[in-house]
Description:
It holds the Pfam family Radical_SAM. It is found in: Cytoplasm. Keywords: 4Fe-4S, Cytoplasm, Iron, Iron-sulfur, Metal-binding, Oxidoreductase, Porphyrin biosynthesis, S-adenosyl-L-methionine. Belongs to the anaerobic coproporphyrinogen-III oxidase family. By secondary structure, the chain is an alpha/beta fold. It has two domains: about 15-25 and about 375-455, Arc Repressor Mutant, subunit A, CATH 1.10.10; about 35-335, tm_1862 like domain (pyruvate-formate lyase- activating enzyme, Alpha-Beta Horseshoe), CATH 3.80.30.20. It is built from 17 helices and 19 strands. It has helices spanning about 15-20, 45-55, 90-110, 130-140, 165-175, 185-190, 200-210, 230-245, 275-290, 305-315, 355-360, 375-390, 395-405, 405-410, 415-425, 445-450, 455, and strands spanning about 65-70, 70, 85, 115-125, 145-155, 175-185, 215-225, 245-250, 295, 300, 320, 325, 330-335, 340-345, 345-350, 370-375, 395, 425-430, 435. It has a nine-stranded mixed beta sheet with strand order 9-10-8-7-6-5-4-1-13, with helices on both faces. Helix 3 (about 90-110) crosses helix 11 and helix 5 (about 165-175) packs parallel to helix 7 (about 200-210). The radius of gyration is 22 Å and the shape is globular. Residues about 1-5 have low confidence and may be disordered.
Amino acid sequence: MNAHPLYSPTRCEFDRKLIEQLDGAGPRYTSYPTADRFGPAFGEADYRRALGQRKIGANRRPLSLYVHVPFCNTVCYYCGCNKIITKDKSRADRYLDYLEKEVDLVCRAVGSREKVAQLHFGGGTPTFLSDAQLERVMGMLKSRFDFLPEGEYSIEIDPRKVGRDTVFHLAALGFNRMSVGIQDFDPAVQVAVNRVQSEEETVEVIEAARAAGFRSVSVDLIYGLPLQTRESVAATLARVIAIAPDRVALYNYAHLPQLFMPQRRIDEAELPTPAVKLDILQDAVAALEKAGYVFIGMDHFAKPDDDLARALAEGRLQRNFQGYSTHADCDMVGLGVSSIGKVGGSYVQSQKELDSYYAALDEGKLPVMRGYRMDGDDVLRRSVIQALMCRFSLSVPAIEEVYGIKFADYFAAEMPRLAELEQLGLLSFDGEFLLVTPRGRFLIRNIAMVFDRHLREKATHARYSKTI
């Protein structure tokens, strides 16, 4: 598809007044429909059927694998992830026994040795696993799948638990991308969220990754944490920019103590006000832009020569359950407790509780808790939302040709809201090309929400994060 002559994917504009006007909650669109639409009507037989369809698929793309490691040594008070707090590493041995059972069931269902182009270890804390346990997991995967030499294989790192030797061991196992949790370097903030982590140990891990040949290092920061100020976060960001990671993820802290028990230990009186949070974000965007980082979308930034920035510039950017991705829209198989995957037109999530996960595998069943099978309307809207989230643009003739619709008729209910957003300056739309403006890119979730039929028509009990 040829781009619009005015299209420039790397330009963005922080319009504070517009952001304040439209600030609200909404999905992050790592999938469409979103995970809160998954249900128990989709069961193990449905997942087996979806996996089996890959046997007969012509020119099927390589797989993406996600492995969830639920264990953490300590609890970070801000965290909303599915995790188990323990210092007993022997619990991981039992978990890996069951993970291997799940891998075998998946491989039998697809019926052939699959190629893998992406792998991501998330958690929890994946580096809770010892070097030997990590080697065991990679061994079980490599003995059953063919990992492509050009693939993207990433792991989330807690620098407090990882030294230089482990980083080199990870490289030897095949990992070539790393995500390093920082959140904030300010000592008072670190104590308030129970994550005390020195700059020195963080730098040691990142320098080791570069020496070991990792292709990309990303760091995670959070704004909106207790005791953060405009000045303190600016100081943290300056130190991060000096470290010069390839990618920076700047997440908005969502305080939902009614959903995430550890957050109840955070003193709400110490949280920055919404106005201060917006100050922090505005300053951070300006600092990252001045340092040469490209705004990828939502809360992600990357150096211009990073694969993510190149994918954005070339119109190849994708979005899945791990966020933005450089690879084509391949099937993703989730492995481990609570993991989420997408195979063909189906989404699936594994059991969230460890006992239920183990019980299903003891019965020889894939540990499916819930899922969703897309219909034609879902597939169409998913394509539209993916284009907006990843390319900030949409070619109407291309959508009409692929899906056999007349865009203005099919999306008649959406047209008035699109017109409103155009009046506000978030987008331009001439009937053939929808172009998100530089000032609309920070509000891309608001634009994508226009096309979310489920959000408009069906109630949900989900608590979405703020769009900014």
